[in-house]
Amino acid sequence: xxxxxxxxxxxxxxxxxxxxxxxxxxxxxxxxxxxxxxxxxxxxxxxxxxxxxxxxxxxxxxxxxxxxxxxxxxxxxxxxxxxxxxxxxxxxxxxxxxxxxxxxxxxxxxxxxxxxxxxxxxxxxxxxxxxxxxxxxxxxxxxxxxxxxxx
Length: 151
Known about the structure:
Elements lengths: L2 E6 L12 E5 H8 L5 E3 L2 H33 L2 E6 L13 H10 L9 E2 L8 E10 L2 E11 L2
Parallel strand pairs: 4-7
Antiparallel strand pairs: 1-2, 1-3, 5-6, 6-7
């Protein structure tokens, strides 16, 4: 059976990760991996092009990481204030959600998506809480979120 080397473009379970060069049967490559966009035939020009793409991506990530570290320093000093209504027992009515925090940060000029706010569940107690915001795979900022009762 003829085998061929392919460069994986995407992660393929039980075969390898993107960027790996693996040897597979020709039929598997021709009929599944290549048409579905999981792999390319590993010719010298394809490998060289992939390496160049990878280097450019790494450089871009380094630049972005540096930028995000500067944003994280500014963001770490921020304090968000939320005022919630109280119920008869004096407890908060409702909670401060990930969306609320992301919206408030966007109002303040930060480009933050709700998926970047690391909060298991909404804040349901009064007081000051520390919340992490993941700006980059290697950069997180901690902000203070203060929840007060409505007067």
